[in-house]
């Protein structure tokens, strides 16, 4: 295990690997952090107490007009620049990490805060049309499941 020098002002609610394990995404408060990391696996009995694994902040991405990110989704199985976040304000925000910014906000996605976002990551058991990777689902307690298309945001 290792820790970066970054101190988080609120509880980290979500953490996952991103971009085929090249980065780590952490959701904390109303923003998520993109972190780079390097794990040093060399074994040296004389220097085993010296920490040489590092974790560095690349960029912070604040979600607009919300108090807390309630759900975060990003594909790690293949190269995708899209990160989806949902906030306590019931909005969903689309981030393009290639451009380094938010590209869309959908207000009032559900009647309550979204607690789960699921992107289509494909399957090793079947093939899909390329357009299918633009689909994602959201769900909120007591408000069912909604299927969305990234191209139309509907």
From TrEMBL:
The chain crosses the membrane at residues 17-39. Coiled coil: none annotated. It comes from Balearica regulorum gibbericeps (East African grey crowned-crane). The lineage of its organism: Eukaryota, Metazoa, Chordata, Craniata, Vertebrata. It comes from the Eukaryota. Keywords: Membrane, Transmembrane, Transmembrane helix. This is WD repeat-containing protein 27. InterPro entries: WD40/YVTN_repeat-like_dom_sf (IPR015943), WD40_repeat_dom_sf (IPR036322), WDR27 (IPR042411).
């Amino acid at each position: 295990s290792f820790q970066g020098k970054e101190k988080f002002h609120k509880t980290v609610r979500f953490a996952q690997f991103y971009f085929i394990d090249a980065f780590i995404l952490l959701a904390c408060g109303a923003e998520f952090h993109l972190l780079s990391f390097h794990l040093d696996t060399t074994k040296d009995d004389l220097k085993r107490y010296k920490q040489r694994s590092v974790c560095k902040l690349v960029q912070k991405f604040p979600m607009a007009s919300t108090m807390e990110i309630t759900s975060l989704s990003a594909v790690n199985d293949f190269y995708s620049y899209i990160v989806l976040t949902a906030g306590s304000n019931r909005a969903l925000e689309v981030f393009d990490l290639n451009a380094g910014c938010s590209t869309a906000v959908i207000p009032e996605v559900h009647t309550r805060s979204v607690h789960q976002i699921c992107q289509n990551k494909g399957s090793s058991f079947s093939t899909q049309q390329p357009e299918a990777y633009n689909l994602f689902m959201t769900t909120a307690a007591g408000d069912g499941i909604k299927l969305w298309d990234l191209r139309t945001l509907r």
